[in-house]
Design goal:
Blueprint (H helix, E strand, L loop, with lengths): L3 E8 L6 E7 L4 E9 L2 E5 L3 E3 L14 E4 L2 H15 L4 E6 L9 H11 L12 E5 L3 H8 L6 E5 L5 H7 L8 H15 L3 E7 L7 H11 L11 E7 L13 H13 L4 E3 L13 H7 L2
Helix pairs in contact: 1-2, 3-5, 6-7
């Protein structure tokens, strides 16, 4: 019995993004998002059924974490997407689906080794991104693994007061500890890190917060002084149960300009799959609640 199958699939009318609702052999449901770019296909992979991190703006965490996924179930998401694609293949993987990868550390690392094995899918680890909300011990441990993945930090606020309101994990691992772990990752791996920042109207998109974010990130540099971080500004995919709304285009652009003027590279992520519940956990929650 194959460990994973596509129970449902919806395709965006706007940008060809496809969202999969996978079913596992025990009946649990997880999600994946296939994004097509000119440079190839990227798949957003889940690492847990649900999530226990409690981030205030994310649908994945609303019903908690049911269980961890096995490395085989993670790999199965890629294989199933490849079967769906036919003659095409998934070229890049982002561990940014439901769940916190570093909360399921052993299975996540096992998956990374399996998916990059030359006897299997042979995907380049440099084409894989792993997103964490800031589990410091896992970040430090990952730096020792010798896996050249791109580490992405879901930051979303430049100070402990605001970040603690949005991400409960910040109470356990405050920003100073997270930034120290990021710097260690950079020094050990020589890899540039990505800072994820979901733009929320009137909350974390203020000009003074952009300046504060720039000051926070400026020390993330290589031994030779080069900038070793990149900010990915993300238009929020709103969740019905959350009061937060996406920033206006004008406020988001102003925020980006402040970062760039202070020497912090920043790009605005294209908003993909907005018409198909592409945000983490949205489709699964809609199906399980009906």
């Amino acid at each position: 019995l194959y460990p994973i199958s596509i129970r449902d699939m919806v395709k965006s009318r706007l940008d060809d993004t496809e969202k999969f609702l996978y079913q596992l052999v025990d009946g649990n449901l997880i999600e994946g998002v296939l994004m097509r770019y000119h440079h190839g296909n990227s798949l957003c992979v889940s690492t847990q059924v649900g999530c226990r991190m409690g981030c205030a703006f994310c649908a994945s965490t609303l019903d908690g974490c049911v269980r961890d996924l096995t490395a085989g179930e993670m790999l199965g998401q890629v294989i199933t997407a490849n079967r769906h694609l036919g003659d095409e293949r998934v070229g890049n993987v982002v561990l940014m689906g439901s769940g916190e990868p570093l909360d399921n550390y052993q299975n996540t690392v096992k998956f990374l080794r399996m998916v990059s094995d030359e006897r299997g899918l042979n995907l380049s680890l440099r084409g894989i991104s792993l997103s964490t909300c800031g589990i410091v011990p896992g970040m430090r441990r990952l730096a020792e693994e010798g896996l050249p993945v791109t580490l992405c930090l879901s930051l979303h606020a430049p100070n402990d007061e605001l970040r603690g309101r949005l991400l409960p994990i910040n109470h356990r691992y405050p920003i100073a500890e997270v930034m120290a772990a990021l710097q260690e990752y950079i020094l050990r791996t020589h890899r540039r890190v990505t800072i994820e920042y979901a733009m929320m109207d009137g909350l974390n998109d203020l000009p003074e917060l952009a300046a504060e974010l720039a000051a926070l990130l400026r020390p993330l540099r290589s031994p030779t002084g080069g900038a070793m971080c990149h900010v990915n500004l993300i238009p929020l995919n709103p969740v019905a149960e959350s009061p937060y709304q996406p920033s206006t285009a004008a406020n988001a652009a102003a925020f980006q300009r402040i970062l760039e003027r202070t020497g912090i590279p920043a790009t605005m992520r294209l908003r993909r799959g907005i018409d198909i519940d592409a945000g983490c956990g949205q489709l699964r929650r809609r199906v399980t609640k009906t």
